[in-house]
Amino acid sequence: MKDHEQFPLIPVKRAQGVWLEDYDGKRYLDAISSWWVNLFGHCNPRINAALRDQLDQLEHVLLAGFTHEPVIELSERLIRLAPAGLTRCFYADSGSAAVEIALKMSYHYWRNAGQTNKTKFITLTNSYHGETLGALAAGNVALYKEIYAPLLMEVISVTSPDCFYREAGESCSDYSRRMFAHMEQALEKHAAEACAVIVEPLVQCAGGMRMYDPVYLTLLREACSRHGVHLIADEVAVGFGRTGTMFACEQANITPDFLCLGKGLTGGYLPLSAVLTTDEIYQAFYDDYATRRGFLHSHSYTGNALACRAALATLEIFEQDNVLENNQQLARAMRNASAHFADHAHVAEVRQTGMILAIEMVLDKATRTSYPWQERCGLRVCQHALENGVLLRPLGDVIYFMPPYVITPDEIKHVAEMAWRGITLATRD
Ligand SMILES: *Cc1c(COP(=O)(O)O)cnc(C)c1O
Question: Between 307 and which of 71, 101, 162, 270 could a Cys-Cys bridge form, CB atoms 3.0 to 4.6 Å apart?
């Protein structure tokens, strides 16, 4: 908050499409989708219309003992879209809550199955799964986690397949395959005590948009099944077309035991998250009350009707507009607009998976030495961009573009141009 003595908060009066507008009429291009939630622009006419209609019918009703049309329709649609075998939906209101639910349900499944030794989770280094205590424990970004360490459950941490660290000349797929040996070892050693492996498929977003190859997920699915450990795919950030497919898991042709969804689920309108799981897991809880096998987890706003309606309108846009196909062109525009960044003296890598493009800055390119964190190099880039009407936010010294899918190729060029200027100014010796 103290930073804002120098950089005052920007009060946003209205927004339209990719543009935000403040009270002085200054406009900002939202190149990070308001923290990865917005898919089809602000004040999207179709989502607005659906919400207006819903407002006059039903805003909310408890989802215990009651149900409603938007939540039923949304569940049916999500199941149709998701990898085959995911046939049950459980709703919550944030990505963190979705992760908590998947962790608890996995543990509880094994308990109901008589496997009371299974109490641990396997997680990747540099992963992020949210801020609540369980999700924070499952994640691995020191910046967010370290202070709270005494409050957190212990997890089994495995080195990430993060391809930033591949050898010169090594392909991302070779590296991901090679790094899987660490996971295989961990599973061999800990399967008896492990409930689940939790991963962010393909992109470790909050960990600096670090990427890995789908082959890792294919190997992971096979190994989890072989060792009797669940696989939790946290697609809160990468779901809904971000990586080029509707869900990142599709690129590895796998079905996880739990699929966590959030962020873009409502097109960036309202807080809603979902955990999709298999009928096998559902059945492990389905029993007479007296057996005490039920999953007693609820949130006040679970399955909120307005949020579900916004999600339905969002999924309708995917269906009507050929979004994934159009995104291929936008992704290409992002790649072309940023290709020259790789030649910059202080850029170590430009990497991309679908509609996520990241630029990693370093002090010394040859040795990949980072800037001292106190210099806040990434922050300075974003401040330059903001002054020029482009909203970016750094992840350390990583600058990334993760725009709404309604951005135009010209707007992409503009974003890249402002990022280039910012990087050049911020890294000047
Ligand atoms: C943002 C995020 C979360 C947490 O979602 P919130 O809605 O912020 O609680 C969980 N997992 C991943 C991968 C995320 O990017």
Answer: 270
CATH (residue range 3-30+322-426)? 3.90.1150.10
Ligand 1 centre to CA of 37 (Å) is 10
How close is the Cα of 95 to the center of ligand 1, in Å?
A: 4
pLDDT tens figures, 40-84: 999 999 999 999 999 999 999 999 999 999 999 999 999 999 999
What is the CA(23)–ligand 1 centre distance, in A?
30
Q: 49-320 adopts what CATH topology?
A: Aspartate Aminotransferase; domain 2 (3.40.640)
241 lines ligand 1 (CB under 6 A): no
Please, how many CA atoms are within 13 Å of residue 213, restricted to the half-sphere of its CB?
17
Per domain, the residue ranges of the chain are: 3-30+322-426, 49-320
Cβ(242) to ligand 1 under 6 A? no
For residue 97, the ligand 1 atom closest to its alpha carbon is 9
Tell me the CA–centroid distance for residue 163 and ligand 1, in Å: 22
Q: Whose CA is nearest to atom 12 of ligand 1?
A: 129
